[in-house]
Amino acid sequence: MDELIGELKAEGVLRSRYVQAAFRAIDRKDFVLPEYANEAYGNYPLPIGGGQTISQPYTVAFMLDLLDPKPGERILDVGSGSGWTSALLAHAVSHGQRKNAERKGSIYAMERIRDICEFGRANIEKYGFITNGVVTVHCRDGSQGLAAEAPFDKILASAAAGGGIPDAWREELRVGGKIVAPVGNSIWCLTKQPNQGWDEREYPGFAFVPLVERPAEPGGHSGGERSSEPPGPGTHYAILFMFAVLLAAGIYATFVPQRLPRPRVNVEIPAGTGLRDIGAVLARHGVVRSRWAFVAYAALSGNAGALKAGEYTFEGSPTIPEVVHRIVQGERYPTERLVTIPEGWDLRDMGGYFEANGIFMSERWWEVAGFPPSQPQSSRALRSGRDFANEFAVLADKPPGHGLEGYLYPDSYRIFRTAAVEDVVRKMLENFDRKLTPELRNEIRRQNRTIFEIVTVASLLEKEVPHDEDRRIVAGILWKRLAAGIPLQVDASVNYLTGKRATPSAADLAIDSPFNTYRYAGLPYGPIANPGIGAIRAAVYSKPTGYFYYLSSADGTTVYSRSIEEHRAAKARYLR
């Protein structure tokens, strides 16, 4: 899901922080049919039965950005289908709310087709939104609105209304509220003005399943029963439309360039891997949108039997024909392999990566690079690994007894398949030595600091703060707390001890270790990860502010405070 979110943000959507947080929390895979589970993160619609689809993620993100849902709002979701949009909205309107909030956000999901309505209901309840009262599901015709629950703050429709926005929706919307709905092949955003005026804006270039309208039967439940009458023209149109959607999705997945989740994506195809499994590997790495589109193209183009095992690097925005051609050609460097170390990995992560990919045993890696504190070592004498200080001046001020944590620069490396651990370590240290330019070294000396101190602070920033501008501010806070003798209290330093990813428990915070920045003032014993150049530069060129505290909220926003009282209030608000 993270790769899909990255693609959507690159395309200019997910601008609302509540919508982005909802996309991270609500997994699209929970809302598709089992046979399409491997396609869940593709940026295209998928069938859910009854001639209906779960919408393209880009379209959903675009519409939700326009709708701009906020905590506490009451929203009508018409044509809720699989329940994905309802769950996304539920997360947004209930974000950060207390159970006893005076005004609790609510979503009213409406779906006319009974089977799909029940499918959506079950999917929404996977997140407990129905049990906790955030979502109510109504299996009925949404074109008639839901007068009993009106007025609504906002209304979203996921199916196209051929005759314009229904009057019922307009009447049931409060003044200042929004309607976001498709009409024909456009998305419309309507804002209700005082005195029954409307601000109406059109966004063309989309395609939707039609909104099926039928007068409500007594009791208000007009949908769900199967008709005994012969299928009319509408059924045929729905089938044709569904066929067109699937055809368009196939063409889109095959021939539209795929924006890769990273500048360079490395994929290994082991010998003996079948066509479908190759498609699955490529889809999992974000190289192709659809496993099945890859399989279909490779088979129809006569290349299914010509795909070669090996390690491949993809860059730019490839199409499926280009990917197939590349794998048919085979590896460019059969005696080499490509390894990629992401920013923020520690020695434990690296050891697991090398062992999982059959490159080195993790124990052998740690014997050379050093053992992380979360990993038991066979001999305490090996804890710090080998000493490379005589080979690299950048290690000159590293205290004795410390491993290479922090100095193994995260990047992509091409290595010989027969390379020894020492060869890879040297390559990474050489890269770190190049990245730490004379300009940076001079500035570190000017500040009367050591490279070891800078790398240690940079590792904290890499693990704690995602954005460079925030990193400079947080670096300023950390340096100021160090100067004042205030414990840094960085969660990531405790997680480095335990190997956990979640918020440290009370027992974790009580661990007696020089890495525990809750128990001991000053820097931790050493770096806790291997930072990239952005975090290193932030540690060197920190930004002074009046803040003494910070925290990261659930949606990734960094929140700053000047006093302990402000910080406690921020924790109560953002970390409930």
Q: What would you say this structure looks like, in words?
A:
- With 576 residues, the protein is of the alpha/beta class.
- The chain has three domains: 2-204, Rossmann fold (3-Layer(aba) Sandwich); 264-334, Dna Ligase, domain 1 (2-Layer Sandwich), CATH 3.30.1490.480; 438-574, no CATH class.
- It is built from 20 helices and 15 strands.
- It has helices at 2-10, 17-25, 57-67, 84-93, 114-125, 167-172, 233-255, 275-284, 291-300, 320-329, 347-356, 362-369, 421-435, 438-446, 451-464, 468-484, 491-498, 506-509, 533-540, 564-574, and strands at 46-49, 52-54, 74-78, 106-110, 135-138, 152-157, 173-183, 186-192, 198-204, 264-269, 310-315, 336-340, 412-416, 549-552, 558-561.
- A seven-stranded mixed β-sheet has the order 5-4-3-6-7-8-9.
- Strand 6, helix 6 and strand 7 (173-183) form a beta-alpha-beta unit.
- Helix 15 crosses helix 19 (533-540) and helix 16 packs across helix 19.
- It is globular, with a radius of gyration of 28 Å.
- The model is unreliable at 98-102, 214-230 and 378-382 (pLDDT under 50).
